[in-house]
Task: structure prediction
Amino acid sequence: MEGESVKVLSASGASASALLLTALGEFVSSHHEYCFASDLIEILSTVGIEEKSSRQAIFRAVNDGYLTSIRVGRRSQLMLTERTSNLLEVGRERIFSFQSRRQDERWLLVAHPNLSIDRQTRKRLTTALRFYGAISPYPGLFVGTNPLFGDRILEIFAEHAPDSQAIIAKANPDDVTGLAEMVTELIDIELLEKSYRHFIERFSDFCDETQYIGQVLLLVHEWRHFAMEDIELFESLLPEDWIGRKGKEVFDELYRRWRPLCPELTSFT
Result:
């Protein structure tokens, strides 16, 4: 990438820390044993993140235990911690399998006692569960649409609320009266449809052969948000010709075309 004239892409308000995590998952995890801070700064610069903001995000990642840092001459060599590697591996599987599973139309029910945990920990738990399509229609219950995520959800409870003693069950749609109505009330289908439409329109006209790293970074970063916004409702609860399927086709096609064209970062060659 040295010497290239790179036109800046827009990150649409995404934070440097969030984009850093996506960059680690896409360009470092499973590809390299380490990277330099300058590599990550270079990647983030392709989507308009200034060097100061990138360095602050890297510092926070090291301070929070996502990265370890050692000095190599005047440079900072960074390695993923085991926790981060596991997090990125699981997250990547979720991102790339999203909207591609054959649906098993059974509810995944997760009951738990009222958790005596602080607000920040509760927020992290709720966010982690939402990434796996589990939402809470009322206190003491999380509901998901993918029974295959049961083990992963138990792992999330064990990590964030080890004393919660969560109980998991599976139920057919008609087994729990009113559950579908409660869940769909928590999902703004019209807003979700607009989000998919915006994604499709934005990336369908988004191609510059000098910017593949930035394009892939934004493509994966914006697609991962649908794993939070869209719990993959059963087909019977969605409008006909659901636009989410078109979004998946666009994501898969552009990733297949763009990812092999990303140049290798200079310090990895």
